[in-house]
Amino acid sequence: MRYRLTFVVGLAVGYVLGTKAGRERYEQLKKAARQVSQNPAVRNTAESAAQQGRQFADKAYHVVSDKVGDRVPDSVAQRVKSLRERSAGGGGDDWGGSNT
């Protein structure tokens, strides 16, 4: 009961503080966030981070699959194989992203 009361009080305080800031402040924050997200330097950094993440995930996938080997039941192996074959036609990588 104490945790519910704390949650409700926190919710009420957040609501009151949020409404005092008003719609105008919300629009200012939204505009600033949009400007940051459309900055070419930010976009390039985000794209390169996403690409590196996909590369690391791909390496991890191959390391794990090499170590697991034949220990996976056939039903799981067949399901993974069918999913990979189906996604191979899409031109993406193993993780559903594009190779841009």
Question: What's a quick, concise take on this entry?
Answer:
Helices cover 80% and strands 0% of the residues.
Give the fraction of residues assigned to helices.
over 70%
Q: What's the order of the H and E elements?
A: HHH
Please report the total strand number as a whole number. Answer: 0
* Rg computed from alpha carbons, rounded to a whole number of angstroms: 23 Å
Poorly predicted ranges: none
Globular, elongated, flat, extended or rod-shaped: what is the shape?
A: flat
User: Whole-number average pLDDT?
Assistant: 79
Instruction: Give me the number of helical elements.
Output: 3
Strand count, sense and closure of the main sheet?
none
Helix vs. strand class:
mainly alpha
Distance between the termini: 52 Å
Range of strand content = under 5%
Report on the structure:
This protein is mainly alpha-helical and 100 residues long. It is 80% helix and 0% strand. The protein contains three helices and no strands. It has helices at residues 2-37, 40-68, 74-88.
Give the tags.
single chain, 100 residues, mainly alpha
Topology record:
Elements lengths: L1 H36 L2 H29 L5 H15 L12
